[in-house]
């Protein structure tokens, strides 16, 4: 049985575990039908030209883990940003871990999607926001069909959330192969500000496939600062579908740090519904071996006087492959748009590949749009300069690559994250950079 | 200290150095002068270990050791320093962090522990004062957006920090106004001891008014065609290079 068939037949079993009378379930049924029709994307589709899911779809994934597993905090502490106080929504093999989590209902709701989907007090928010921005594509449909668990975050207006929220999905390897479909909803009302850190971490080498959907609503003048740390084992794959709907004067920033995993696909979509919106997406990708990271971004400029900033840096070693596909749409009404996009890459090995494709569709005439992509090697003269000062070749290369990716970190607002990422970069580049980062 | 014997070097099949002989002893200052394209910068790069150049014959001995097989960093660890004609911009790495890395890597190569932070700060303060470098300058990205003069001053600051045995200053005077030239030359002179040596590569005599050489060599077509004392530099300044070319060609 292939994975699609397995998922379709598992849906019946899934229905035994959820409230089939809720309006949510109608959405799930529709989504299941759509997925059944469309199936998994393949390389014939333009958006999937350079990323093949074949190698990861052939595993026999468990869709429902059989038993629940507990983890000791001390064993997984290193996957947390543990040196800051934070709210935590933690899942183990797709199941909520109350032991590792720290949720709240104090002024703000930082809790579980399963609760939000069933309890009356969340009904209005769910009705207004759930599945309202997730796009109509087969992987989002698939996630919607099985949507039940994930993080639910609602920040009412005028709240500056006192500490960041960490969402971490662990997989324990209890199943020979596991598929996870977390569903997150983040609603940030007027003038509120939230910082979120998301991570997926497999604890063994048993294959894991995560198809996650996160819907984020940044309402008027809201500020959303989102960090995705992707440093999973090379047996874990992630398809991250994130949709951000922004209202007037809101500011949304997503940083994606991709250092691990077998195959990572980031579908990151911003929709600007209002004026004077700022959307920022930044990424650092450093991979090697046969790893594959694909950034597929969209900014939809719908109204005037908005900005978007994209800055992605990639360093590819060994047989790794990277894809950057950045689409910017500027509607006719979206005059005075400022849209900037940059994608710079270094190929460290002769066998590494990057496919980079800016895609600009501009229908307004009074706009400033720029894009630039570069693919290069390390600058030999810079390398000689560093070596002539006594810095050995490997360290010099590391330092240059560090310098190359470094400016992406300027906009990271949480120092502990900046520190952690810098350390991950140094580790990943295999160098002791020799000074305090 | 440095002994160069019949050195031949080429880049992309083009012979640039065609039999250089040079001996530099501790405590000496040598100036290498010559018209554009004579091979001055190539000589500097070959001594420092730039891999773009193919050494096709001859030897470079540093304290009696053949250094041809050594990488640039290993030569640096043995005390060779090149002040670049065109220092490379490295955005994202501050001058301070760069120097810390360079010093600690050099110490590591010698089997020493990292320099304690306090000592490092003291050294940085001392040497930046010597070069009249503003503290704010040290936290800027290496050479990024530096003026020509700032770059050269920064090169000599690095030299001061690393205290090399053999410093090669490649066209350090180019792009410097008279004040910057004075500061740079003053720095070099203060770093001079009886145990180290300096090779000043320059097109003009101007810098040699400040850093006074013990020997002046004229490079032409990849060979040292004339050597003399500091008065040779004055002669070149007054008469240009043509008479040398004529003398050689004759």
UniProtKB/TrEMBL annotation, chain A:
<dbReference type="InterPro" id="IPR000825">
    <property type="entry name" value="SUF_FeS_clus_asmbl_SufBD_core"/>
</dbReference>
<dbReference type="InterPro" id="IPR011542">
    <property type="entry name" value="SUF_FeS_clus_asmbl_SufD"/>
</dbReference>
<feature type="domain" description="SUF system FeS cluster assembly SufBD core">
    <location>
        <begin position="174"/>
        <end position="404"/>
    </location>
</feature>
<dbReference type="InterPro" id="IPR037284">
    <property type="entry name" value="SUF_FeS_clus_asmbl_SufBD_sf"/>
</dbReference>
<feature type="domain" description="SUF system FeS cluster assembly SufBD N-terminal">
    <location>
        <begin position="22"/>
        <end position="167"/>
    </location>
</feature>
<dbReference type="Pfam" id="PF01458">
    <property type="entry name" value="SUFBD_core"/>
</dbReference>
<dbReference type="InterPro" id="IPR055346">
    <property type="entry name" value="Fe-S_cluster_assembly_SufBD"/>
</dbReference>
<dbReference type="Pfam" id="PF19295">
    <property type="entry name" value="SufBD_N"/>
</dbReference>
<dbReference type="InterPro" id="IPR045595">
    <property type="entry name" value="SufBD_N"/>
</dbReference>
<comment type="similarity">
    <text>Belongs to the iron-sulfur cluster assembly SufBD family.</text>
</comment>
<protein>
    <submittedName>
        <fullName>Fe-S cluster assembly protein SufD</fullName>
    </submittedName>
</protein>
From TrEMBL, chain B:
<keyword id="KW-0067">ATP-binding</keyword>
<dbReference type="InterPro" id="IPR003439">
    <property type="entry name" value="ABC_transporter-like_ATP-bd"/>
</dbReference>
<comment type="similarity">
    <text>Belongs to the ABC transporter superfamily. Ycf16 family.</text>
</comment>
<keyword id="KW-0547">Nucleotide-binding</keyword>
<dbReference type="Pfam" id="PF00005">
    <property type="entry name" value="ABC_tran"/>
</dbReference>
<dbReference type="InterPro" id="IPR010230">
    <property type="entry name" value="FeS-cluster_ATPase_SufC"/>
</dbReference>
<dbReference type="InterPro" id="IPR027417">
    <property type="entry name" value="P-loop_NTPase"/>
</dbReference>
<feature type="domain" description="ABC transporter">
    <location>
        <begin position="2"/>
        <end position="246"/>
    </location>
</feature>
<dbReference type="InterPro" id="IPR003593">
    <property type="entry name" value="AAA+_ATPase"/>
</dbReference>
<protein>
    <submittedName>
        <fullName>Fe-S cluster assembly ATPase SufC</fullName>
    </submittedName>
</protein>
């Amino acid at each position: 049985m292939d994975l699609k068939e397995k998922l379709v037949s598992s849906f019946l079993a899934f229905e035994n575990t959820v409230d089939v009378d809720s309006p949510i379930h109608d959405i799930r049924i529709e989504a299941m039908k759509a997925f059944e029709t469309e199936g998994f994307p393949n390389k014939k589709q333009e958006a999937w030209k350079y990323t093949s899911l074949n190698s990861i779809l052939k595993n026999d994934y468990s869709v429902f883990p059989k038993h629940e597993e507990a983890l000791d905090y001390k064993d997984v502490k290193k996957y947390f940003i543990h040196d800051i106080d934070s709210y935590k929504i933690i899942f183990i093999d797709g199941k909520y871990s109350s032991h590792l989590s720290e949720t709240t209902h104090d002024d703000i709701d930082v809790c579980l999607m399963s609760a939000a989907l069933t309890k009356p007090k969340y009904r209005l928010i769910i009705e207004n926001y759930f599945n309202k921005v997730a796009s109509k594509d087969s992987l989002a449909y698939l996630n919607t069909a099985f949507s039940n668990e994930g993080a639910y975050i609602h920040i009412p207006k005028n709240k500056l959330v006192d500490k960041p929220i960490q969402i971490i999905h662990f997989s324990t390897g209890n199943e020979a192969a596991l598929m996870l479909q977390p569903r997150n909803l983040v609603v940030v009302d007027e003038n509120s500000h939230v910082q979120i850190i998301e991570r997926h971490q497999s604890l063994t080498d048993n294959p894991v496939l995560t198809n996650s959907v996160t819907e984020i609503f940044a309402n008027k003048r809201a500020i959303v600062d989102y960090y995705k740390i992707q440093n999973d084992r090379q047996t874990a794959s992630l398809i991250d579908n994130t949709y951000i709907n922004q209202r007037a004067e809101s500011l949304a920033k997503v940083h994606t740090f991709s250092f691990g995993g077998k195959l990572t696909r980031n579908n990151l979509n911003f929709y600007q519904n209002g004026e004077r919106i700022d959307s920022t997406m930044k990424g650092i990708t450093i991979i090697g071996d046969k790893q594959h990271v694909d950034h597929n971004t969209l900014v939809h400029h719908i109204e005037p006087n908005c900005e978007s900033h994209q800055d992605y840096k990639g360093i590819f070693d060994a047989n790794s492959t990277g894809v950057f596909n950045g689409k910017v749409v500027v509607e006719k009404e979206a005059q005075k748009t400022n849209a900037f996009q940059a994608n710079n890459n270094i190929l460290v090995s002769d066998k590494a590949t990057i496919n980079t494709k800016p895609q600009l569709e501009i229908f307004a005439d009074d706009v400033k749009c720029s894009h630039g992509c570069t693919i290069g090697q390390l600058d030999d003269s810079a390398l000689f300069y560093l070596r002539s000062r006594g810095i050995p070749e490997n360290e010099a290369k590391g330092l240059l690559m560090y310098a190359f990716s470094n400016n992406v970190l300027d906009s990271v607002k949480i120092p502990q994250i900046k520190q952690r990422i810098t350390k991950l970069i140094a580790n990943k580049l295999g160098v002791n950079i020799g000074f305090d980062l | 200290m440095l002994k160069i014997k019949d050195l031949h070097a080429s880049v992309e099949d083009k012979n640039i150095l065609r039999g250089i002989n040079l001996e530099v002893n501790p405590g000496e200052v040598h100036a290498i002068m010559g018209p554009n394209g004579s091979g001055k910068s190539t000589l500097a790069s070959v001594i420092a270990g730039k891999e773009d150049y193919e050494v096709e014959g001859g030897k470079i001995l540093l304290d009696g050791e053949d250094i041809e097989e050594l990488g640039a960093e290993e030569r640096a660890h043995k005390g060779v320093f090149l002040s670049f004609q065109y220092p490379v911009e490295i955005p994202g790495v501050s001058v301070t962090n760069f120097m810390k890395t360079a010093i600690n890597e050099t110490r590591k190569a010698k089997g020493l522990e990292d320099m304690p932070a306090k000592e490092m700060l003291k050294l940085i303060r001392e040497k930046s004062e010597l070069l009249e470098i503003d503290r704010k300058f040290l936290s800027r990205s290496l050479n990024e957006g530096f003026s020509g003069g700032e770059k050269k001053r920064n090169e000599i600051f690095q030299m001061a920090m690393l205290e090399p045995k053999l410093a090669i200053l490649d066209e350090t005077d180019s792009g410097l106004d008279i004040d910057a030239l004075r500061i740079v030359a003053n720095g070099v002179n203060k770093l001079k001891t009886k145990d180290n040596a300096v090779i000043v590569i320059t097109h003009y005599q101007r810098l040699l008014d400040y850093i006074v050489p013990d020997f002046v060599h004229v490079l032409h077509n990849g060979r040292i065609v004339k050597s003399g004392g500091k008065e040779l530099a004055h002669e070149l300044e007054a008469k240009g290079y043509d008479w040398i070319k004529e003398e050689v060609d004759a």
